[in-house]
Amino acid sequence: MKKFLAFLLTLFICLTAVAQVENSIVLDSKSFRAVQTDALTGVNIDPIGVDHSRQACARVKIKFDRMNKAQIDALVVKMRSNTDLTKQKVADYYDNVLILEMTAKPNTRFYFVSPEFGESNEVTLNLEANREYEMLASLNQTYSIIVDSNVAGADVYLDGIFKGQTDSAMRLTVREVLIGAHTLKLTYGTVSHEQKIEVNGGSISFRQNVDTAANEPQFVVFAVEPASAVVIINNQHYTLTEGAMRVVLDSGTYNYTVTAAGYHPQSGTFTVSGAKVEKRVTLKADIANVTLTAPDGAEIWINSVKRGVGSWSGNLTSGTYIFEARKAGHRTTTLSKHITSAQPQQSYALTAPTPIVGSVMVDGTPLMADVAIDGKSVGTTPLKISNILIGNHKVTVSKSGYAPYSQSITVTEGKTATVSVSLTEHNAQDNYKIGDIVTVNGVQGIVFQTAPQVKIVSVVEGVAKWSTQKQYCHATDWSDASYNMARIMAMPNWATAYPAVRWCTGLGEGWYLPTIRELRVIYEDKKQINLVLSRNGMATLGSKNKDAYILSSSEYNANYTYNLNFKYGSVNYWQGKDTEKSVRAVYAFEKNSITKSRTSAPYKVGDYYNDGVKEGVVFEVELDGYHGKIVSMTNSSNGLAWSYEDILIKAKHKTDGLHNLAKVSRRKVWRKNYPAFAWCVDLGVGWYLPAIGELQSLFAAYEAVNKTVVAYGGERLYKDEEYWSSTENPKMVGTYFDAYAYHKEKGAKYISGNKFAHYTVRAVASF
Question: What is the pTM of this model?
Answer without folding.
Answer: 0.31
